[in-house]
């Protein structure tokens, strides 16, 4: 059950990332704010807004700049 | 008291260090009070009459924080959050910007309102931002437990009190409260002392010498031609970096003596290959604060989020960053300059698919930053324009006489350039430092 949920989140997140950053994802661990191509503050905001919509969650103001990698965002979604 | 003051290094710091670890042995709680008293003393050293300023702020915001945390009604919570943020901005504005506002009113309306001439309220810009972050954390439910001593320690911890980095409550307090950190740690002690030495070197050997040439250049700005104006502006660009990053290295080093790891504020910013990249490397904790608490909430509050709106917000955020640096229109220009730089950078990325060669990117970025810092340092706009004119060659090409006894500073500039571009930074040192066990 847990694994299923995780897989689903990763899958949906991947679509958001590929669409917004206009990239083809190879390794999830390499997806980091400031390092991954096109992932700057503006895209970051769009990612956050899309994640909020897609998963129907509210990301706290104080957490927005802490969610600086694919994995961190994934963990955040799984916890909320 | 500044960090490179011998009284700080050879008297204050050893006394606080000894008291901290000595009293920690006997009591679980005294460590907080040692650091709080040390912080108040450190602050009072500059101007004892301003000490109530920070104490009042701590008391008021502690109460605000508690009201927000303990309230169950979301509307009330939100109201208190807005009131408290407004209070903090007003508090900062009154002490830092009253005279600036009066000056501008006098200028605009030809009036003659007396200036207040308040003494410069040290550290207020930093602790105001840190406080706002705390209040939002309270609102978001991130702060489970606190008390007056803990909150005071968070604000008044002396290594980061005066010039940052701007830290978050949940980043700092678990470190203070970890009992393992109450014992002298040999690795942290060694690394802390190394960082203090690096910081002192940056400040005393590099920044303070570059400042000699910068001061004389800006004083004689009307006589600066090509070489003189380039030399002056380049020296300032490296002076401000080594001054600020040196100060923060010392702050990081001093905090490490107490086993506290401060976040890194600089990551070799002059190696940046775009303006976007520059702000990911320069004054990182300020950039993060602005993104988190101004940029994102502002954009999210807009009905229509599009590229144009985002760019407008970016510009205004950087105007705020500019004015935050000090009460002067030149700081506003500096902020606006970077705002425009970011807009150009983002637009370019959006419109063109190809990537600029990284050396070309670096060259453009460095020069853009170098120009922006002329406004940062100048006393008047006239002064900035004159230097930029000189750099473009419009004022001739002879070497200014008043620089002749300062030729050695060119050597310091070359060392600064070498260190900025060819060396790894203190972030790398912090991440990779190992103490060999014999």
Notable features of this structure?
heterodimer, A: 80 residues, mainly alpha, 0% strand, globular, B: 438 residues, 17 helices
* Number of DSSP E strands of chain A: 0
Write down the overall geometry of chain A.
globular
| Binned strand content of chain A | under 5%
Shape of chain B: globular
Describe this structure in words.
The complex is a heterodimer of chains A (80) and B (438). Chain A is globular, with a radius of gyration of 12 Å. Helices cover 56% and strands 0% of the residues of chain A. Chain A has helices spanning 2-21, 41-55, 70-79. By secondary structure, chain A is mainly α. Chain A has 3 helices and no strands. By secondary structure, chain B is mostly helical. Chain B is 71% helix and 0% strand. Chain B is built from 17 helices and no strands. The two termini of chain B are 38 Å apart. The interface between A and B is medium-sized, with 16 and 26 residues.
Topology (SSEs and partners):
The complex is a heterodimer of chains A (80) and B (438).
Chain A: H1 2-21, H2 41-55, H3 70-79
Helix pairs in contact in A: 1-2, 1-3
Chain B: H1 6-26, H2 30-46, H3 51-70, H4 74-109, H5 124-139, H6 148-156, H7 169-177, H8 186-219, H9 226-257, H10 275-279, H11 284-301, H12 307-325, H13 329-351, H14 358-377, H15 381-391, H16 408-422, H17 426-432
Short description:
The complex is a heterodimer of chains A (80) and B (438). Chain A is an all-alpha fold.
